[in-house]
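A brief tutorial aside. Many learners find it easier to grasp structure tokens once they have seen a single protein encoded end to end. The record that follows does exactly this for Cpt, chloramphenicol 3-O phosphotransferase. Read the sequence first, then the structure, and try to relate runs of similar tokens to stretches of the chain.
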Amino acid sequence: MGQTQELGQIIILNGAPRSGKSSIVAVIQETFDGLWMNLGVDRFMQMTPPRYLPGIGLRPGGERQDIEPLVPILYSAMYESIAAHSRLGLNVVVDVGHHDAYAIPRDILSDSARRLNGLPVLFVGVRCPIEIIMERRQKTRGKVGSAAYSLMPHPVELWQREVHIPGIYDLEVDTSLLSPGACAEIIRQHLADIPAPSAFQRLAAHHT
């Protein structure tokens, strides 16, 4: 009665598709102390009606201008939900691929950072060389037709270029060099050693 609710820790993993974010999320949920909710982009896409997909997962290139105006609203809803969970004392891990390569700039990342103002956020860049991403794409699609992916698809190149702009992170990991477990352990140690990450504060200052 009357005691202040402790805020839940937020970890945001930002990177291109197949960079290994989901595997790190799984380790965090399984091994970190306490309850960790996954409120990432895949979860929100599952809630999105098919006619509005890919919704929040819209890739770089400005190719779906019919649904593009909805994307900032969907991101706002996701980040407001993340904030609500943290304020209730629930830890949250988020896997996402932020970019601003829409038909017009949307400034979604800095707006998202502003919505988590005052909450404990660790912003992690999940990097992976494009060659490894292509190998993972081929494996998930199976052997049949894999030759069609021997050339680098333009959307993959766009993701690789756009997802880490402006590159302001508290921590970065490379999943071509480290296992999901090793990446999660680096994140755990960083949280223990650096109690007040500041990347999202800096990004929020860019919001116009």
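Self-check: Strands lie at 10-14, 36-38, 91-96, 121-127, 171-174. If you spotted this yourself, you are ready for the next section.
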